Amino acid sequence: MAREVEIEKSLIDKLVELKYTYRPDIKDFVSLKCNFRQKFEAFNKVRLTDHEFEKLYEEMITPDVFTASKRLRQVNTFMCDDGTSFHYTLMNVKDWCKNDFEVINQLRINNQNSYRRYDVMILINGISLVQIELKSLEVNPRRAIQQIIEYKNDVGNGYTNSLLCFIQLFIVSNRSNTYYFANNNQKHFSFDVDEQFLPVY
Known about the structure:
Elements: H1 4-17, E1 21-22, H2 29-44, H3 50-60, H4 65-73, E2 76-79, E3 85-88, E4 101-110, E5 115-124, E6 127-134, H5 142-153, E7 169-173, E8 178-182
């Protein structure tokens, strides 16, 4: 019987075969944020001061899933400290091969209320877009769905105050059964995993 860690390794190996870059060094919010800065500056061919980057980061992060989704796909404007401005994008929506694809695992978040660990995430240009929660074969994937709901309901969970606000898709799997469902604002994200019909596919 495959253990969760084996399923996770198998998934990462498959993504690496598909030309994703595996980043075992990204394990917390600090390293996730630093990686995003490097990707953002390279992708947009800009160099930001520390103050400018923090200002940009604060402007980008939003608790509203739909605002975050819109920001991902549109041309945005940023005002620099010297009064000049520039347009930036977070990803190339027309020519996907020009984006930078990475996979990370075991991202940890500690806050005043709890300790959270995320199995696998897919990053595009340093932004967390897909969260994948894995369980061993004997565990029903609905347990992973419940885990995501619990994480989303946790105060300070990262989904509203960090790069996790850009997550578009959740995937849960025990390798035998796989489900996926879209991210949504909190008021639409409360459902009972024991219901017969879940908002999943």
